[in-house]
Design goal:
By secondary structure, the protein is of the alpha+beta class. The protein has two domains: 3-258, Beta Polymerase, domain 2 (2-Layer Sandwich); 260-321. The chain has helices spanning 24-28, 44-54, 58-66, 121-129, 139-172, 179-210, 223-285, 298-321, and strands at residues 3-10, 13-17, 33-40, 72-75, 80-90, 95-105, 109-114. It has a seven-stranded mixed β-sheet with strand order 2-1-3-7-6-5-4, sandwiched between helices. β4 and β5 form a beta hairpin. α5 (139-172) packs parallel to α7 (223-285) and α6 (179-210) packs antiparallel against α7 (223-285). The longest helix is centred in the last third of the chain and has 63 residues, at 223-285. The chain crosses the membrane at residues 269-288, 300-319.
């Protein structure tokens, strides 16, 4: 079901919001007006009407409807098409969730399209409202607010993953840790980092392209702000790569620890087997159908029992002293 949100700025001042999508053209007729339209779960017909009014390219419209695009910035004759992702982190499953959003950027209109009803537009609007002094930069101001919120979400997800990996490191060396849980958690975190990297890596090129001076965006005042977003993307990318290496190291360390524990267990079992071999050898040897010292006498039983206990105790002390058991 289609839901929408709209806003209209004129000379950097918010003058109207919540108006019908059909009134977009009417608002754009005013000089100095900039319009934002958000469409949630539109179909092709819904978006086609708006595309006809704003002159949006049919390929960009098709990408906005189908989604599942790689983060990118396509340049057309009179507008730009942006595809990006918001991310979240589920601490219960240690998995990263993604929510795709598409955006059309024209000289005086900014159109966002998404299928996820839970997409956090409130944070984007709050970011715009927190910087009214920049609203005079028109569409560049709106685009920056969206990208800034998305990149801040990347930082929050990476920070959460970093904390999860630290907790996993502590769990890894506990003497009675659940190795199956460590293994599952390690693979889940590594999978999340792969998903996050797949989202963040193309964003570096997207923001870098926006910094180019040949685009139609009004970047005189907003240039440093987009540069700041670009720096944040680089930082979160480097952080993600370091966490991927750390997650891989945890997997390798877990396998090494399991191997070491198996060696220790094997050593202890072998030590106890050697101790048990003493009474087995003595009783087995004298179990032959031949006379032996003390045969037929109670003293012989006591003597053999003393030899078994003495040799077993001696082996136990020797193995314990050498940390074999």
């Amino acid at each position: 079901m289609l839901t929408f949100q709209t806003r209209c700025y004129r000379d950097g001042i918010l003058i109207d919001e919540g108006f019908a999508v059909a009134n977009v053209s009417e608002h754009l007729e005013a000089a100095g007006a900039v319009v934002w339209v958000d469409l949630c779960q539109p179909d092709l017909a819904d978006l086609a009407r708006l595309a006809e009014e704003l002159g949006l390219h049919e390929l960009a419209v098709e990408d906005a409807i189908t989604l599942r695009q790689r983060p990118k910035l396509d340049r057309y004759a009179d507008h730009l098409f942006l595809s990006a992702y918001a991310v979240g982190f589920d601490p219960e499953t240690a998995l990263v969730t993604t929510s795709e959003i598409a955006a059309f950027v024209t000289d005086r209109a900014f159109v966002t399209v998404h299928q996820d009803e839970d997409f956090d537009l409130a944070s984007v609007i709050a970011r715009w409202d927190s910087s009214p002094d920049l609203a005079g930069n028109g569409v560049a101001f709106l685009l920056h607010g969206l990208l800034d919120v998305l990149v801040d979400g990347y930082f929050e997800a990476v920070e959460a993953l970093d904390q999860e990996i630290e907790e996993l490191e502590n769990l890894l060396f506990l003497p009675k840790s659940d190795q199956a849980q460590v293994q599952r958690r390690s693979f889940a975190l590594r999978k999340s980092l792969v998903v996050l990297r797949r989202v963040i890596l193309p964003m570096r090129e997207v923001v870098n392209t926006l910094l180019r001076r040949d685009l139609h965006l009004k970047m005189d005042e907003m240039g440093p702000y987009f540069q700041d977003v670009y720096d944040h993307v680089l930082r979160v990318m480097e952080w993600t790569d370091s966490l991927r290496d750390l997650a891989t190291s945890i997997l390798e360390a877990n396998l090494a620890i399991q191997g070491n524990r198996l060696n220790v267990i094997t050593k202890k079992v072998t030590g106890y087997a050697a101790i048990i071999a003493v009474p087995t050898a003595i009783t087995g040897f004298y179990g032959q159908n031949v006379p032996y010292p003390g045969f037929g006498h109670l003293d012989g039983f006591y003597a053999s029992s003393a030899v078994i206990v003495g040799l077993s105790a001696l082996l136990f002390v020797l193995f314990k002293r050498n940390d074999w058991i």
